[in-house]
Write a structure and sequence with these properties.
The protein is α+β, with helices and mostly antiparallel strands.
Length: 87
């Protein structure tokens, strides 16, 4: 499935959350990641994030789509993240 993940995390935990999310998804821009992920890996990611965040301070929103067939992506302005190769 295709997932868009957005988060608003306390600065104390934001690096841990970003690092964890980048293990599964592609960083697009500040607080936004996207990518194809299996149901099992999505469940694993959610469980790992629950261990990092504080539910009374932090927020994570997941948009899950079975297919990208009817979606499109348009960038206006500077394109951030997602395209750099990490070696």
């Amino acid at each position: 499935m295709f997932v868009i993940l957005v988060y608003d995390i306390n600065v104390k935990r934001v690096n841990k959350v970003l690092k964890k999310c980048r293990q599964y998804l592609t960083w697009i821009q500040n607080s936004v990641l996207e990518g194809e992920i299996s149901d099992a890996n999505l469940k694993k990611l959610k469980m790992e994030l629950i261990k990092i965040i504080k539910k009374d301070e932090d927020s994570i929103i997941l948009y899950c789509m079975r297919t990208t067939r009817y979606s499109s992506r348009e960038i206006i302005g500077l394109e951030k993240g997602g395209n750099a190769l990490i070696i």
